[in-house]
Amino acid sequence: MPHDHDPLEEGPALRVRALEELMVAKGLVKPETLDSIVEYYERETGPRNGAAVVARAWTDPEYKDWLLRDGSAAINAMGFSGFQGEHIRVVENTDAVHNVIVCTLCSCYPWPVLGLPPTWYKSPAYRSRVVREPRAVLAEFGVSLPDEVQIKVWDSTAEIRYLVLPRRPDGTEGLSTEELADLVTRNGMIGTALV
Amino acid sequence: MDGIHDMGGMHGFGPVPCEQDRAFDHDWQKRAFALTEALAWSVPFCADEHRAAIERIAPEDYLRLDYFEKWTVAATALVQAAGLVDPQEVASGRKRFDIALVDHPAVGPADILAATKAGAEMTFPATTAAPRFTVGQSVRVLANSPAGHTRVPRYVRNHVGQITLNAGVFQFADTMAVGQGPSPQHCYCVEFLATDLWGNDADPKGRVCLDLWENYLEPA
Questions:
Q1: What are phi and psi of A40, to 5 degrees?
Q2: Residue A18: which domain range?
Q3: Which pLDDT value is given to residue A1?
Q4: Do B23 and A117 touch (CB under 8 A)?
Q5: How many structural domains comprise chain B?
Q6: Distance between CA atoms of residues B178 and A34, nearest Å
């Protein structure tokens, strides 16, 4: 058989292509569906969505209250919804509390507002350590917090996904919502950056 | 399952690879992700079944394989368990038998995008079941360590935490993962003191919060 191979000895790219071809031949998937899934996640999800939510919360106190009370509804109202974002809880950083998100058991993450997670978020090092020594992990990201700041780590163990609302940086009073959104990073919304 | 996937609190994995900053590094990873999403529709299987299949990957392979390859290895196992492919087909990449496609229709682009944007329905009305616990109550995580899929990390087992929120009634991952239905029950956010979990080395002010289904808990 020309395609006979040991599935653990060849490269993953070849194995995934062979699997896709088999599943297409079986009639279980359509190649154009895979194209549209990839395109959707690349184009319509990602941290720019989350940044828009954060910037609105920074400038609209009523929206912020709603976001903290019912994250899913407030986020849906901005047009962001879908798989792994059905139930989103937004946790607010203050001068007393800093929040960090993880999934120690797999890689749960709020896809509609942050996209798919970066490799480091899925790494054994991050998953094992951030619940145990969050300050040391944050230091590796260049974040150092005063001892009096409480660190809360949110382990996404059920169906709720988390998004951190970072503190609005000082000196940004004159910025527009769009300019504020440009300041917000993905790591800021995971909690491994301050903004 | 006391598997390698249950990593919270383990030592020895070194520094966080902060510079590995992208969701995908290779096109095949995008294909692997999308292939799994599409198979979940036609086979079908749910996220809990897929997570459970990833957890069944042997520990040495779990640590060695790329994240997205684990997704396809698990998806393949589920397709095989459903009887839709056989091991020879997987090994050779060549189809050997036809399946009843009427029962396993391949999803088209429009349908999958609509479903993706709509999200999964995982909740039930709050009145479905009376809550056993209240906000502010102290609860202990049961010591149970089932061999199958569960969403209790080892590091909170037998520990006492405080309920800070009743998140509502959700389908239960442990039963969803084995096709035994949703077993709807309340799910609570439980806050633990870092010092209770990790001892003297922990940040005295630190807290760790987890969402835990009612079946995992007992009054403390």
A1: -60, -50
A2: 12-43
A3: 42
A4: yes
A5: 2
A6: 27
| pLDDT tier at A2, thresholds 50, 70, 90 | very low
Question: Cα–Cα distance between A75 and A56 in angstroms, integer?
Answer: 11
CB count within 10 Å of CB B156 equals 25
Residues in Cβ contact with B79 at an 8 Å cutoff, skipping those fewer than 6 apart: A23, A28, B39, B43, B85
Summarised one tens digit per residue, pLDDT across range A30-86 is: 999 999 999 999 999 999 999 999 999 999 999 999 999 999 999 999 999 999 999
Q: Can you tell me the ipTM of this complex?
A: 0.97
Give the pLDDT score at A3.
Answer: 52
Q: Give the mean pLDDT of B192-215.
A: 97
Residue A40's nearest CA partner among A32, A29, A51 is: A32
Note whether residue A6 is domain-resident. Answer: no
User: Quick one: closest CA in A to B185, which residue?
Assistant: A158
Tell me the CA distances in angstroms from B38 to A17, A150, B109, one per residue in order.
15, 42, 10
CATH number at B109 reads 1.10.472.20
**Pick from A13, A125, A156: CB nearest B15:** A125
Instruction: Examine the pLDDT at A7 and tell me if it is beyond 70.
Output: no
Mean model confidence pLDDT for chain B: 97
Last residue of a domain, one of B89, B118, B147: B118
Chain A partners of B5 at a C-beta cutoff of 8 Å?
105-106
Query: Strand pairing of B138-141 and B160-170?
Result: antiparallel
Disruptive mutation site among A17, A107, A119 for chain B (greatest number of B CBs within 10 Å): A119
- A26 with A54, same domain: the answer is no
Measured distance CA(A163)–CA(A195) in Å, rounded: 12
- Interface check for B2 against chain A (CB to CB < 8 A): the answer is no
Give the separation between CA B48 and CA B43, rounded to whole angstroms. 14
CB B149 within 8 A of CB B55: yes
The predicted model gives A168-184 an average pLDDT of 97
Helices (H), A28-170: 31-44, 47-59, 61-69, 71-76, 111-114, 119-122, 124-129, 134-140
pLDDT tens-digit map of A117-155: 999 999 999 999 999 999 999 999 999 999 999 999 999
Please give the residue range of the domain that contains residue B169: 123-219
Same-domain pairing of A164 and A85: yes
Considering the entire predicted model, what is its pTM? 0.96
A19 with A112, same domain?
no
Write the DSSP string, B45-95.
--HHHHHHHHHTS-HHHHHHS-HHHHHHHHHHHHHHHTTSS-HHHHHH---
